Amino acid sequence: GQNIDQPTEMTATEGAIVQINCTYQTSGFNGLFWYQQHAGEAPTFLSYNVLDGLEEKGRFSSFLSRSKGYSYLLLKELQMKDSASYLCAVTDSNYQLIWGAGTKLIIKP
Amino acid sequence: ETGVTQTPRHLVMGMTNKKSLKCEQHLGHNAMYWYKQSAKKPLELMFVYNFKEQTENNSVPSRFSPECPNSSHLFLHLHTLQPEDSALYLCASSQVGSHSGTDTQYFGPGTRLTVL
Fold first, then answer.
1. CA of A38 to nearest chain B CA: how many angstroms apart?
2. Searching chain B, which residue's CA lies closest to the CA of residue A49?
């Protein structure tokens, strides 16, 4: 079966750095997405990786290793507004999106 | 503002009611999706429409009935629901290319459904 694993919940301190990991086992791979979802709101697109390496976008970076079936989302200089759920999703060989259950990130002052 | 709107934002209904959820996308996309989101579970894809044609129906019970009159509008008709159908129902849209993995989906804010 196809599976996306990410931690259920993480806690970090304002101003610090946090890394949210995602591992996947899918039938084929055509890209990996990270979305942010604040409570009661729509998931919003953060990043897309299809090649190995690090993609940096301001305070957020996303890394991919296809050989390891692994990605992480790195958030720097954490702000209180970063408290949200972070969803990892992989496009499989049929171009279907397979979703993880999300990681709830709690930022403390 | 993501360009995808959903109404109503909240809905409480009894098991014998009939209601409809509405989604509209203002992004010029050619594909629309219905998802179910339950607490601590992955998003569950329910239905997909490409160019107004339904291309996926992921074993969704018949008490959920989708309708896509054009590329900008999507409905989910609900009837005789069960309490376990209570969840957040999300609509999304994307521009589907020639098997491009970068068909980023853009989501609406969802309808929080409670079935009593």
1. 10
2. B102
**Which 3 state secondary structure label does DSSP give A15?**
coil
Phi, psi for residue A41 in degrees, rounded to 5 = -120, 175
Phi, psi of B93 (to 5 degrees): -135, 160
Task: Give the distance from residue A79's alpha carbon to the nearest chain B alpha carbon, in angstroms.
Answer: 21
- Half-sphere exposure of residue A68: CA atoms within 13 angstroms, side-chain side: 11
Q: Which tens digits make up the pLDDT trace of A4-49?
A: 999 999 999 999 999 999 999 999 999 999 999 999 889 999 999 9
Pairing of strands A70-75, A84-91: unpaired
Rounded CA separation A3/B42 (Å): 10
Q: What part of A 45-74 touches B (C-beta under 8 Å)?
A: 45, 48, 50
Q: Are the C-beta atoms of A22 and A64 separated by less than 8 Å?
A: no
Nearest residue to B33 via CA among B115, B86, B95: B95
Q: B41-70 pLDDT, tens per residue?
A: 899 999 999 877 777 777 899 999 999 999
CB-based contact A9:A102 (threshold 8 Å): no
Q: Is A8 left (phi over 0), alpha (psi -120 to 50) or beta?
A: alpha
A10, A28 Cβ separation under 8 angstroms: no
Residue closest to B23 by CA, chosen among B85, B105, B113, B111: B111
